[in-house]
Amino acid sequence: MTTDNRKDELISRFQETIKGIKETDRIGFLHDADADGICSSVIAAIALERLHHKKLSLRLFPTNRQVIIQDKHIQEISDAKIDYFFTFDLSIDQKPENVKNVEAFSQIISFDHHQLLADLNSEKTLFLKAHFLYHKDGSRYPTSKLVYDLFSPLVDISDLDWISCVGLIADAQYNEWKEFVDSTLRKYHYELKEQGIDSKLGEIVSLITALTISDISLVREFWDFLLDSNNNENRDIRSVRKRIEETLQSKYFQYKEAVQKEVNGWCDFAKNNFEKKEDLYTATIRPKLGVGSVVSTKISFLPEHFHHTIIIFVDYGTDMLSANGRRQDCAVKMNELFAQACKGLENATGGGHIPAAGAKFMRKDFEEFKKRVFTLHTEMSKK
Ligand SMILES: [Mn+2]
Distance, CA 148 to ligand 1 centroid (Å)? Predict the structure, then answer.
C-alpha cells in the first residue's frame, strides 16, 4: 500500500543513493526488451551521464521474454564488477533468490510496475515498485514515467519527456497520463489524437515494437541509437523535435512497415472469425512474426470492443501456444483469468497486468485451456 511516509522515504533514499555514486563505481543495467523497458533505461542512462559523467559498464536485456534476474545474469554482473545494478520494467520479485545473489556483491536499484509479489527493500536493494509510489493503481504507472519522475528533481531531463511518453503509451496508459502526453505533443507541435498510439509518439511505439518482433537483437543497436541521439546538449524544442523525426526516419522504419502489414492482416482475420460468449471474444491466429500481443491490444482499443474481453490464441507452429488477453475497462482481471486457467496444466504459465496479460501452454492442452477460459470468464464477470 502507498502511504505518504513510505513514498517520501523511498524517494529520499533514491536521491541519496544516486548522489552517492562515486567516480570509481561501476554501473550495470538490466532492462526489459519492450518499449517501456527500453525507454525507461535510456532515460536513466542519460540522467546518470548528465549527473556523474559516467557511462554504463554493463547492459543486459532478456532475449527470452523472461522478466526476472536470470541465473546466467548473476555471473555476468559479478564478472563486470558492478557496484550499482539497475533493473527496469522487470518483475524481479518473481525470483527473489537471484536478487539475494546479486546483493552479495552489488547495490540494486529496481524500477517496476508489474504486480507486487514481495517487498524486496533491504539494505542492499532499493525496490522502487510503482505500487509504493503511486496513490492509484501502481500498474498504471509505467516504468518510463516512474523513472522520469524520480530523476527529474535531480537533473534536467525535460528534453526526454517524449521518451517517457513513448514508454507509457506502449504500456497502454495514455488515458492515465493524458495531460502529460498531450502537453508533450503540443510542446513539440504534434497533433493530439483520440488514442495515444495514433499520435506521432505512438508511431515510435510501433517502431520499437516492430523491432522487438522482427529481431530481438536489434534492441541493443536501437538502444544505443536512442541514447546517442538524445544525449545531446541541444535541448531546445526544435532540436528535440528533430531527434523525434530522425528516429522515425531512421533505418528502423522499414521494420515498422513490415510488421504493420502482418498486424493489420491478422486483426482483420480475427475480427472476421471471432468466437463469442457474452462479452468475451476469442480468435486463433497463425502469424509468421510475433504479432499476437499487438493484434490483441489493437483490437481491444477499438471503440466497439473497449468493454469486451479480447483473447487472441496464437499458434506459431511450435509445441507451445500462447494466449493474449486484453480488457481495457478492467471489468475482468486478465492476469487472474490466465493464472487460474493454467493451474495444473503441464508447463503452462500465465499472468501479467489486469487489463493485459498473457499465457503459454502446451499444444495438447489447447482445447482444455480454451474451455477453462470460457468458463472462468463467465464466473469472473459475475463478481
Ligand atoms: Mn512496463
Answer: 13
Ligand 1 centre and the CA of 291: distance in Å? Answer: 18
Give distance in angstroms: CA of 262 to centre of ligand 1.
24
Q: What is the CATH number assigned to the segment(s) 257-381?
A: 3.10.310.30
Q: What is the pLDDT of residues 140-170, one digit of tens each?
A: 999 999 999 999 999 999 999 999 999 999 9
173-190: pLDDT as tens digits: 999 999 999 999 999 999
Q: Give the list of residues 6+ apart from residue 200 with CB closer than 8 angstroms, or none.
A: 185, 188, 190, 191, 244, 248
- Give the pairing of strands 107-112 and 125-129: parallel
Ligand 1 centroid from CA 113, angstroms: 6
* Ligand 1 center from residue 244 Cα (angstroms): 21
Cell of 45: 542512462
For 365, the grid coordinates are 492442452
**Ligand 1 centroid to residue 149 C-alpha, Å:** 15
Q: The pTM is what?
A: 0.85
Give the CATH architecture of domain 4-249: Alpha-Beta Complex (3.90)
Is 39:166 a contact under the CB 8 Å cutoff?
yes
By DSSP bridging, strand 125-129 and strand 58-60 are unpaired
Pairing of strands 320-326, 275-277: unpaired
Residues near 360 by beta carbon (within 8 Å), at least 6 away in sequence: 320, 321, 322, 323, 347, 348, 349, 350
Q: Strand 280-285 vs strand 275-277: parallel, antiparallel, or unpaired?
A: antiparallel
Query: What's the pLDDT score for residue 1?
Result: 54
133 residue type, one letter: L
Q: Give the Å distance between the CA of 240 and the centre of ligand 1.
A: 24
Please report, for the chain, the start and end positions of each structural domain, with discontinuous segments joined by +.
4-249, 257-381
Question: What does 77-91 look like in DSSP terms, one character per residue?
Answer: HHHTT-SEEEEES--
Distance 101 CA to ligand 1 centre (A): 24
C-alpha 272 – ligand 1 centre gap (Å): 31
